[in-house]
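sorry for the late reply, my laptop died twice this morning and i had to redo everyting from scratch. anyway the thing you sent over, i finally got around to it. pasting the sequence first so we're on the same page, its 155 residues, then the predicted structure underneath. double check i copied it right bc i was rushing
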Amino acid sequence: MEAFTHLFVYSFLFSSLLRTSITQDTITPSESIRDGGTLVSTGRSFELGFFSPGNSKSRYVGIWYTISSETVVWVANRNAPLNDHSGVLKVTDDGVLVLLNGTNSIVWSSNSSRSRAVENPVAQLLDTGNLVVKDGNENFCGRVLIILVTHSYRK
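ok and here's the structure:
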C-alpha cells in the first residue's frame, strides 16, 4: 500500500512538472496550436486557444482571462466558425497568422503586409492580452509586425 501511495505522489509531481514545462507563450512557423492546445502568457493572465461558447458546437480561436475561461476578450474567426475540432493555428514563414480547418483551407488570417521580409517570425501572447507577431531575431523593443489588440473587446 505504501508503494502505491509513493507511486501516486511521484506520478502527480511528474505530471505537474511536465505540464509546467510545456506551457508556452510563443509559437514559431515550425510549431502550431491544434484544438485542445493553448498559449499562456508568461504571467499566466491570459490564454489563447480553441473554445465553444455556451452550448454551441462551433469552434473559435480566442483569448480569454485565465481565471475565467468564460470571459473571452478576442476572437479570431468570429465570422467563420469551425464545425469540428480539426482546427490548427499557425504563424507562416512570412509572419502571418492563419487558422486552418481539417482540409488545410484558410478559415481566418491576420492578412498583414510588410515592406521587408521577416527572417524569424514569432507569435507571442503578452500579459496585456495582446497577441503580437514579431521578428524573433529582435527583442520585444524591436519591430513588431502585427498587434491583435484585445482591449477593444473587453466589457
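Residues 4-21 have pLDDT under 50 and may be disordered.
thats about all i looked at so far, will dig more tmrw
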